[in-house]
Design goal:
The chain is built from 9 helices and 7 strands, in the order βαβαβαβαβααβαααβ. By secondary structure, the protein is of the alpha/beta class. Strands 3-2-1-4-5-6-7 form a 7-stranded parallel sheet, sandwiched between helices. Helix 1 runs parallel beside helix 2 and helix 3 packs parallel to helix 4. The protein is globular. It starts with 7 loop residues before the first strand and ends in a 6-residue tail after the last strand. Bound molecules: NADP nicotinamide-adenine-dinucleotide phosphate. NADP nicotinamide-adenine-dinucleotide phosphate (NAP) binds next to helix 1, strand 2, helix 4 and helix 7.
């Protein structure tokens, strides 16, 4: 019997990077997983194929989680397919980095919508199902070190990721009575497509400042999600830092 047998998880933005690693880790430990994506259908299907190829259960569902209607459709499809929802991982995220002087309202808005509004949209859509089930639940959102320490050229992203931390603490207070835990993870710099967008010389300067001397791996973030989902029953309203010591 695997530790997440009988549980159902939705992972937003799971076609690649950290989300794909989370989906695979939860599935490898027995959860039935809904792999959400916005545009990358091929990679999302590959994630599902990898999971089912290892004997797990997964489906992929397209949906732009920055839109409330899409989040509702995603959650409804998960419920119809697997019958319940126990774990929500709010992972979908984007960057549109530029300094404040060059940032236009659309760059600001897009990042807030995809990184922060999506957390409200999906949590709000999942909640009635978790409450009706009456067996608690686990809501885990991927914030960032940038939401704690700030980032040059990242006012939009830092505001969204700091917003997730405030959301997490408030929702944790509200939902504790229903045994629903709400936590955030603040990764430092993790080797994914998102980090590849940072120019190589800037990346090297960042790496040189990390006490553990390397970027993190998506699987390392995924294992932290697994820990919260499996053994985190008395952990709520927290931000778990997984950053190689870059921010303490
Ligand atoms: P990534 O490789 O760029 O992948 C982003 C994922 O989000 C993709 O699956 C993408 O799907 C999905 N996505 C984007 N917009 C979406 C939307 N509107 N609706 C649904 N899905 C959407 O990013 P990553 O590095 O794995 O980052 C994952 C999360 O960790 C993000 O929240 C990011 O901010 C956070 N994070 C990353 C790092 C890092 O260093 N990499 C550090 C701290 C925090 P499509 O391909 O279909 O668009």
């Amino acid at each position: 019997m695997l530790s997440l047998s009988g549980k159902v998880a939705i992972v937003t933005g799971a076609s690649r990077g950290i989300g794909a690693a989370i989906a695979k880790e939860l599935a490898a430990n027995g959860a039935k997983v809904v792999v959400n994506y916005a545009t990358s259908e091929g990679p999302a299907r590959e994630v599902v194929d990898q999971i089912t190829g290892q004997g797990g259960e997964a489906i992929c569902i397209r949906g732009d989680v920055s839109l409330y209607d899409h989040a509702e459709v995603l959650v409804r499809a998960a419920k119809e397919t697997f019958g319940r929802i126990d774990i929500l991982v709010n992972n979908a995220g984007i960057t549109r980095d530029r300094t404040l002087r060059k940032m236009q309202a659309e760059h600001w808005g897009e990042v807030i919508e995809v990184n922060l509004n999506s957390v409200y949209n999906c949590t709000s859509a999942v909640l009635p199902h978790m409450l009706e089930q009456g067996t608690g639940g686990s809501i885990i959102s991927i914030s960032s070190i940038i939401g704690q320490a700030g980032g040059f050229g990242q006012t939009n992203y830092a505001a969204a990721k700091a917003g997730i931390i405030g959301f997490t603490k408030s929702a944790a207070l509200e939902l504790a009575r229903n045994n629903i835990t709400v936590n955030a993870i603040c990764p430092g710099f993790i080797a994914t497509d998102m980090l590849s967008e940072v120019p190589a010389e800037v990346r090297e300067k960042i790496r040189a400042k990390i006490p553990l001397g390397r970027f993190g791996g998506s699987e390392e973030v995924a294992r932290t999600v697994l820990f919260l989902a499996v053994d985190g029953q008395y952990i709520t309203g927290q931000c778990l830092n997984i950053n190689g010591g870059l921010y303490m």
